[in-house]
Amino acid sequence: MYTIDVIEKLIQRFPEVSKIPVPEKFVRDPEPQANVPPQKLLEVCRFLKSDAAFSFDFPTHMTAVDHLKDGLFELVYALYSTQHRVGLILKSHVSRTSPEIDSVSSVWKGMDWQEREVFDLFGIRFNGHPNLKRIMLWEGYPGHPLRKDYVHVTDKYDSGLEIGTPGLDEQGLPVKGDGHGA
């Protein structure tokens, strides 16, 4: 199957799915991309893994993008078929006011921790996830730091002089000269 055929065949099976055009500028051959309605994501993913014409057996990664002005989160799933040697990017949008979508960890076990990371850092809930809890931050952490409207509240762990602050050394003193001991 050629990469260009992936989206067309997917749309034939799921008319709700739409093709995302290739950007005018890109670094190298981009993977085909498709928008999937959130209520269809789990069904589409099951199909993409189980149908022999697709066999997307390897989810390389997933993440989210906060579109604050549009009031949406965009979930991005990068999939790969080791059998057909093709990749595919799926995108699905959920509202910021009710950020939830079905988990695909039942399709690919490797998505378990990736969904937990997105939950932890963006606050998006994954319905049906077997262990949805924070993975990077502690329970009770205030907020979700990758949301564009997140405001950090200074706590006991902040020194105000983080290592690498421009113009200051490790003790918080101004660096003399060029900062390289000269």
Could you tell me the mean pLDDT?
Answer: 88
In CATH, what is the class of one domain?
Alpha Beta
CATH architectural group of one domain: 2-Layer Sandwich
Order of helices and strands: HEEHEEEEHE
Oligomeric description of these chains: single chain
Poorly predicted residue ranges:
none
Radius of gyration: 21 Å
CATH-defined fold name of one domain: Beta Polymerase, domain 2
SS-based class = alpha/beta
Query: How large is the count of helical segments?
Result: 3
Q: What's the story with the biggest beta sheet?
A: 5 strands, mixed
Spatial gap, N to C terminus: 61 Å
What share of the residues does DSSP label as strand, in percent? 15-25%
Structural overview:
The chain starts with a helix and ends in a 55-residue tail after the last strand. It has a domain at 3-127: NADH:ubiquinone oxidoreductase Nqo5 subunit (Beta Polymerase, domain 2). The model has no long low-confidence stretch (mean pLDDT 88). It contains 3 helices and 7 strands, in the order αββαββββαβ. It is globular and about 65 Å long. The protein has 182 residues and is an alpha/beta fold.
